């Protein structure tokens, strides 16, 4: 779930980030939905490696407070859900499938490993671009800001454009992500590696 609230950083402050307060954020949604805020906390690596919970590092907080240019990370939760659903949909599911069997547990661990492989590079790309966005959005008036503004007016848009959705080098990868193809490609690589002995 993504909860958006305005920040309360004073206008005169030079800070671009401040520590968030989960309880304060949750209080803004008091009475809205009893499930709205999970007690914030980090999910341990043990939970991830046992095949019980598939969360990528950096998005393991049950609740996070972040600024608008970081929301793309939360938006990736939708992609995470799609990829996870695709990975789990490939688990054995016949009337004879015993969900408590060793074979099913192995298949589930493999599905979660595929999920992690699929999400790792994409998450890295989005996080790195989020850092660029943060920098570009907070340029002080001056030559660098003027160059950014000049490039934003160019047609066609140059690669590295401040607005990620218009960047011709990034937008197709960012907005054209095919989760089914990604899972299929990773599964194919895993199958070939298994046939070749690892």
Automatic annotation (TrEMBL):
The keyword Disulfide bond does not apply. GO terms for molecular function: monooxygenase activity. InterPro entries: FAD-dep_Monooxygenase_BioMet, FAD/NAD-bd_sf. Keywords: Monooxygenase, Oxidoreductase. PANTHER family: FAD-BINDING DOMAIN-CONTAINING PROTEIN, MONOOXYGENASE. Belongs to the paxM FAD-dependent monooxygenase family. This is Uncharacterized protein. It comes from Aspergillus tanneri.
């Amino acid at each position: 779930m993504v909860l958006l609230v305005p920040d309360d950083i004073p206008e005169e402050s030079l800070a671009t980030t401040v520590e968030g307060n989960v309880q304060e954020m949750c209080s803004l949604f008091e009475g809205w939905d009893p499930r709205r805020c999970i007690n914030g906390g980090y999910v341990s690596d043990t939970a991830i490696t046992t095949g019980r919970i598939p969360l990528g590092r950096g998005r393991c907080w049950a609740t996070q407070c972040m600024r608008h240019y970081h929301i793309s990370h939360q938006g990736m939760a939708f992609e995470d859900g799609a990829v996870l659903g695709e990975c789990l949909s490939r688990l054995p599911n016949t009337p004879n499938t015993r969900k408590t069997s060793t074979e099913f547990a192995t298949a589930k661990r493999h599905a979660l490993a595929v999920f992690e492989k699929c999400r790792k590079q994409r998450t890295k790309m989005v996080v790195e671009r989020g850092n660029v966005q943060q920098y570009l959005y907070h340029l002080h008036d001056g030559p660098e800001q003027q160059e950014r503004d000049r490039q934003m007016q160019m047609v066609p848009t140059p690669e590295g454009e401040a607005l990620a959705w218009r960047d011709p080098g990034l937008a197709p990868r960012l907005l054209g992500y095919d989760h089914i193809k990604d899972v299929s490609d990773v599964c194919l690589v895993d199958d070939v590696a298994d046939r070749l002995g690892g």
